[in-house]
Design brief:
Radius of gyration: 33 Å
Number of strands: 6
Number of helices: 9
Structural class: alpha+beta
Largest sheet: 4 strands, antiparallel
Distance between the termini: 65 Å
Length: 245
């Protein structure tokens, strides 16, 4: 029967000599015998065992898990449990990595819109990204309230065209105008803005915010701290963000 030295086992399995020695010290790959000079000698079965260990290590199994598997009287039951545990761990890790990748992609996209880059710019983007869920929640609340009004609007217009009931459009306007005022006030009460110049978070006056030019994510405002007038990034108010955390 063939005998293999530590170096030969390492070469055949594509690992280092130190790795083979480490597995020996951990008790999962004990050599079949020692030579007269004290050299470790491994059998064919030891070599097969080493290849199994290397395969399981490539799958991410820990040394403790492999030791448990190799020493258990019912390895079939153990491997089934270990596969389930490792699969769950890998899926969780993939989810975390995907989340990191999504954040990196979003960060690169956000940086393209930064006029003058600074370390504070990254802080503003991080604040905005972490705050986005709370801001979407505010948008969703307004949308859910506005949806019935939208249906009533088109319904009243349709009846006005078909039946000549134009008074329904006037009735809708009576309801819609107070709603628009309430919705605007609710919205600006629940959002803040980040100044791109001094990076302060502030809440503008209702009149200023209401009439300001805006994009889906920014509004042209004057920062009360530094006086900068330009497009400021919209974020959910601190209380909203904490409640959504």
């Amino acid at each position: 029967m063939s005998k293999y030295t530590t170096g030969e086992v390492a070469k055949l399995c594509g690992v280092t000599v130190r790795t083979v020695q480490y597995y020996d010290n951990r008790g999962i790959l004990v050599p079949a015998e020692l030579s007269e000079g004290g050299r470790r000698l491994y059998s064919e079965d030891d070599l097969k065992r080493m290849r199994v260990i290397c395969f399981l290590r490539d799958l991410g199994f820990s040394i403790d898990a492999i030791s448990r598997l190799l020493s258990d009287d019912d390895p079939a039951a153990v491997i089934d449990l270990l596969i389930d545990q490792q699969t769950q761990a890998l899926r969780s890790e993939i989810g975390e990595r995907q989340e990191q990748l999504d954040k990196l992609t979003a960060l690169r996209k956000e940086l393209k819109g930064v006029e003058t880059f600074s370390v504070e710019s990254i802080g503003d983007i991080a604040y905005t990204m972490n705050n986005r869920k709370a801001l979407r929640k505010i948008h969703m609340k307004l949308l859910l309230v506005a949806l019935p009004l939208g249906i009533l609007q088109w319904g009243s217009i349709a009846l006005g065209i078909v039946k000549g009931w134009w008074w329904l459009v006037a009735a809708w306007a009576v309801v819609a105008i107070p709603y628009a005022i309430w919705a605007s006030k609710y919205y600006f009460d629940h959002v803040n803005y980040i100044c791109p110049k001094c990076h302060k978070v502030f809440k503008p006056a209702f009149k200023q915010a209401f009439w300001a030019s805006h994009t889906p994510n920014t509004r042209k405002l004057t920062c009360p701290d530094c006086g900068h007038h330009g497009y400021c990034v919209e974020v959910a108010a601190e209380a909203e963000a904490k409640a959504d955390a």
